[in-house]
Amino acid sequence: MFFSLILSSAFLVVLGGVPTAPAAAPAPAAKPAPGLMLQIATQPLRAQGARYGVRLEILENGYWTAGSRRGHLDLAARRRLYAAVAAARAAWPAKPDPGTVRCRALPMQRTRVRVRDVAFEGTSPCGEPLPAEVTALMKLATELTTAPKPEVAPTPRPVVTPPAPKPVPVVQPAPQPAPAGPLVTLMSEDLGGRRFAGTGTITIARDGSWRAGGRAGKLSTTELTALTAQVGKAAFSGARPAPGMECAAMLEGMITVTAPGRGSYRWGVPCGNPSPSLAALAATIQRLTR
After folding, report:
1. How many C-beta neighbours within 10 Å does residue 194 have?
2. Between vectors from CA 167 to CA 166 and to CA 172, what angle results, nearest 5°?
3. Any idea where the domains of the chain sit in the sequence?
């Protein structure tokens, strides 16, 4: 029995001297995925069975996706967008607009705008419009992401004159001027009406040069001066169809007039009712670029 106790004690000593493996360190917690800040999706209402298609999506960390295009907003752009998002978020739930245009034409498109944890929906050109804060947010998001950026003229390279017995004057090439920015743009969207020859865009630059599809030209100084004055007088911010406007015809097309720094307005044909100054401006653009 004494011998058995000695063996048991020795066995316990041996077991107590066996080293054990250290406990594994806990895996670092995964960073949470950035949340959705803004999503703009549209659904065509004339195509049967059509679903919503996402046009633009911006995450809280500034990364954005628009179809095949991607990008990232810097801190200054994100701060501007955060302020617009807060204003749009405060407008939820959207209240019906008592001045909404009555229009018997069928709406052509439904737009859904998700602003963080809430969503807004509206139809155009007829039906319930989106709140002004949401429209302003959509415009700013487009400007910061998918809007075309102004081109920068390349810097001319200096010409190095090789050494020569006699000095030879070198004529430096004049730097190319930067392309003039757009003064006004007229976009026509054909919806199957007889009044439209097709979808197209007319752009007139501030230097008078214009492009319309495959055609191009330049306005005279007198024409450019008159058009610039007409753009400055056009009522973009206050443009709105008159309350009580009735229209039983099907829409044949859409017209959008945009002037950078002034505004943009879109209306349907023949149901739209733009301000007289915008209607006159659209007619002038078409006349000058024929």
Report:
1. 7
2. 150
3. 36-144, 182-288
Whose CA is closest to 279, among 217, 236, 222? 236
pTM over 0.90: no
Q: Cα 236 vs. chain centroid, distance in angstroms?
A: 19
Estimate to the nearest angstrom the gap between the alpha carbon of 272 and the chain centroid. 24
Name the residue among 221, 258, 241, 268 with its Cα closest to residue 109: 268
Which residues of the chain are modeled with pLDDT < 50? 1-16, 18, 242, 244-245
**Nearest to residue 211, comparing CAs of 178, 177, 254, 180?**
180
Distances, alpha carbon 237 to alpha carbons 80, 261, 277, 285, 287, in Å: 21, 11, 12, 20, 24
Q: What is the pLDDT of residues 116-144, one digit of tens each?
A: 888 888 887 777 788 889 989 989 998 88
8 A C-beta contact, residue 50 and residue 64: no
CA distances in angstroms from 276 to 140, 170, 174, 203, 238, listed in the order given:
27, 57, 45, 21, 12
Residues 6+ apart with CB under 8 A from 289: 202, 204, 210, 212, 215, 217
Q: Residue 59's pLDDT is what?
A: 93
Assigned token pair, 135:
């429209």
Predicted pLDDT at 152: 63
| pLDDT tens digits along 176-209 | 665 678 999 988 887 766 665 567 899 999 998 9
- Contact present, 155 and 175 (Cβ < 8 Å): yes
Write down the pLDDT at residue 197: 58
Per the structure block, which two tokens stand in for 157? 């390279």
CA angle 202, 190, 128 (to 5 degrees): 105
Nearest to 118 by CA among 37, 189, 51: 37
